[in-house]
Amino acid sequence: MTEPAAEPKSTNIAAELLEFQRKLQACKSLRELAFVAVNEGFGVLRFDQAVIWQYDMRSQVSVEAVSGLAEVSPEAPYVQWLTRAAVHFVEAPGQPVVATALAELPESLAEDGAEWAPDQLLHCALLSPEGAVLGGLLFARDEPFSEIDRAVAQWMGAAAGFSLWAWRRDYRPVRRWLQRTSTTRLLLGVAFAAALLSFVPVRLSALAPAEITPVRPYPITAPVEGVVDSIKVQPNQIVAADEPLVVLNDTTTRNKLAVAVKALDIAKADLQRAINKSFSDDASKGELNLLDARVREKVAEVAFLSEMLDRYSISAPQGGLAIFADSEEWRGRPVQPGERIMVIADPSLVEVTVYVPPEDAIQLELGSDVSVFLNVDPLSPLKAKIVQTSYETITMPDNSLAYVVKAQLGPGFLPRIGLRGTAKVYAEKVSLGYYLMRKPILFLRKSLGI
Fold it and tell me: How far, in Å, CA of 143 to CA of 131, rounded?
């Protein structure tokens, strides 16, 4: 009764081994091969954990995959212990397949591994067709491994070793060169390659804050000293020519005009009375010139106050977009003559204003390219050409300094006035070495005062 049951079991193991080999051969990358090797062999060999490792291009042990883990971190203590264990199994004399208990390992390995590894370990070396060790498969579980388990593990290791050797053929010459090249020659080669790359021409560029601004905006300023009574429009509202925009409080001037009108009436009455008396009184004739001058003075005062009163209402000189912050912030705010309240701009005429910090200033020429990455759509840069650059810096609202660069947008999408983003301004071509070292050199000059 025992023998008939053993044949199907042997047949199942053979079929599982062939299926395991087929999955290894179907792998499309080294990473997939490592994953299959530690996760697809449980039907052939029972284990609690499986690990595959290989020699990297510098002949150092590299743990590639651990069963049940999606990623392997080289800094993890368990992975570092696996690296030391792999070195021990390869350096220890013995057969390609070694089964041992955790307690039989060297004392340092046994003590450190007691926290993570099961009691029984089975290591199978992964060999190339020439017999060179490429890596290893390590199986772990609580029960000891039998002779059949060792044979199965050896077959699994042979299949995995051949597949690993086939994938590693692509970079075997590079690996041999790295093994034969001393550290000094390697560093010299890297330095020589870096020196060659430093002469590669690249285009010098700088990043700076940018804003979409109107072309030739018309400023609306306070014509007289006063207090803002009301703002008749809303921010970003389209206004027509001669439409009322701002009304200033005119109470003081209106009262002064009323007093001046009364004074003018009195002056006129005094002049008329003097004229009537002058026909019979020679003394009144001498007062006529004085009273006439007083009347002309009062007429001029009334005319001046009337003209001033008309200025307390500000209208739009042209149609366009009213650009200002908030109407409520202006209500009740005192203004001085010439103080800007808002601007009127044509929304179809816009440009890019770039504020280049002095530490990022480069030699910019008219017609140079500018790429604008707006915050609302950073994946769709706008193209522009420089049309104006400032020779002096201005003070920004945050008290920093910046050069102002104006750029004209190309045809296509018309952005809204006020949008902000980052602009990349381009200058002449320079070497890659200068491009990379420009900022460090500038920092050293500032630090050392050169």
Answer: 30
Query: 54 with 134: CB under 8 angstroms?
Result: yes
Closest CA to 245 of 100, 342, 114: 342
329 and 356 share one domain: no
Q: What separation, in Å, do the N-terminal and C-terminal C-alpha atoms of the chain show?
A: 96
- Residue 384 Cα distances to 263, 413, 415, 435, angstroms: 63, 12, 12, 23
Asked whether the CA dihedral 175, 181, 183, 188 is positive or negative, the reply is negative
Same domain for 233 and 360, yes or no, is no
Calpha distance 62→87 (Å, rounded): 10
- Helix ranges (H only) for 92-182 are 107-113, 147-168, 172-180
- Same-domain status, 385 and 334: no
Verdict on whether the full-model pTM lies above 0.90: no
Do 235 and 333 have their domain in common? Answer: yes
Q: Is residue 356 part of a domain?
A: yes
Angle, in degrees to the nearest 10, between helices 147-168 and 30-39: 170
Q: What is the CATH number of the domain that holds 278?
A: 1.10.287
pLDDT in tens, 80-89: 888 888 888 8
Task: Give me 348's structure tokens.
Answer: 């179809």
What's the gap between Cα 339 and its chain centre? Answer: 37
The whole domain housing 233 covers 216-248+314-348
Helix ranges restricted to H, 169-235: 172-180, 183-197
Same domain for 76 and 131, yes or no, is yes
pLDDT tens per residue, range 395-432: 888 788 889 999 999 887 889 888 999 999 988 888 87
Tell me: do 337 and 432 sit in the same domain.
Answer: no
> Of 264, 288, 311, at which residue does a domain stop?
311
Angle of CA points 106, 153, 112, to nearest 5°: 25
Whether residue 145 sits in one domain with residue 235: no
